[in-house]
Amino acid sequence: MLKITGCLCILAGCIGWGIGRVRDERNRIRHLREMIRIIKRIQNEISYGRHTLPEICLILSEYCKTSYGECFRTIYERTKQQDGTCLEKIWEEELARSLHRTRLQEEEKEILIGLPQNLGIQEEKYQAESIGQSMDLLLRKCRQAEDAIENKSRVIFSLSILTGVFLTILLL
Amino acid sequence: MRREEVLHMFPQSMRSKWEKVADQADRLQEIRLRVNVPTTVLIDNRELFVDAEGELSDRQPEDSANRAEELEAVLRHLCQYSVYAFADEIRQGFLTIQGGHRVGLAGQVILEEDNRIRNLKYIRYLNIRIAHEIRGVSDDVLPHLYGRNGQVLNTLLISPPGCGKTTMLRDIIRHLSNGTAYGRGVNVSVVDERSEIAGSYLGVAQNDVGIRTDVLDGCPKQEGMMMLIRAMAPQVLAVDELGSEGDIKALQMASCCGCKLVATIHGSSLEEVRTKKYMCNVIADGLFERYLVLTRRKGRCAVEGIYDGEGTRC
Question: pTM surpassing 0.90?
Answer without folding.
Answer: no
